Here is the input.
Amino acid sequence: TAGSIAIALAIAAGNTLEGVTGAYLVTRFAGGTRAFDRPQDVFRFALLAGAISTMVGPTVGLASLALGGFADWADFAAIWLTWWLGDAVGAFQVAPLLVLWLTNPRVRWQREQMVEAACLLLCLFVVGQVVFGGWTPFEVKDYPLDYLCVPIFVWAAFRFGQRETATATVLLSGIALWGTLRGFGPFARETPHESLLLLQGFVGFTALLAMAFAALVAERNRIEAKREALLRELDDAFVHIKALRGLLPMCASCKKIRDDQGYWDYVENYIQTHSEATITHGLCPDCIKKLYPQLEKQPQ
Here is the structure.
């Protein structure tokens, strides 16, 4: 009908506006495509793209449904919360995966890293099945074993990076969704709606902490690499200075040397400043004859 088409257009407009709002806020306040490089930017992304901008779609869409008579105003809050939670978790699950892989699509792993990545993937699958797939020796299949997922994310963050951590969260979320809908795992409840709400909360919170931790590890690695580079440059500069390499501008008359700042200084001062040598003063025989000729006339 005409009404349903109008409502569909309104929902589409709300979803589009939600995406545009999230992109603007993240670009303006969270570093844009580099929003996952630092922990503070990860939390800003979660707030702006995962919490604030995702309010637009549910508000516009649900208001359109309610005004068109397709939703009850009495259920507005419950429906809005479900809609918003799905959009928020989806944004924080899918956006990091797409942004990180599109900005850095090349995989530069050595053979050892490829073997480790395969082991990580295998462990992720096994842990996912144990927690959410019912692979336990117990008769009860909903034991609260979700904490077993944490080491997987720590492993991915420490040994690989943000891109692989985002991939691990998405893969584990898929296993969790599959198992929860089949009645397995700690979030399985009597109704699928309740189960999915609990699962979405767990997935969103876990993804946030995993990405923040991965950003923290990456930031620490960048700082360490920069520190090592600065130390190497300092060592090279120190060796270069102590060797007194290059051209030294010297006055042909007074024999002073011009330093890097343009000041003229005595040779002995320059050498002591720019090398490890220590200057001691004395007189050579020629200078003794020139300055003290009377010493030559003294009887032996």
Observations:
- DSSP finds eleven helices and two strands in the chain.
- Residues 257-297 form one domain.
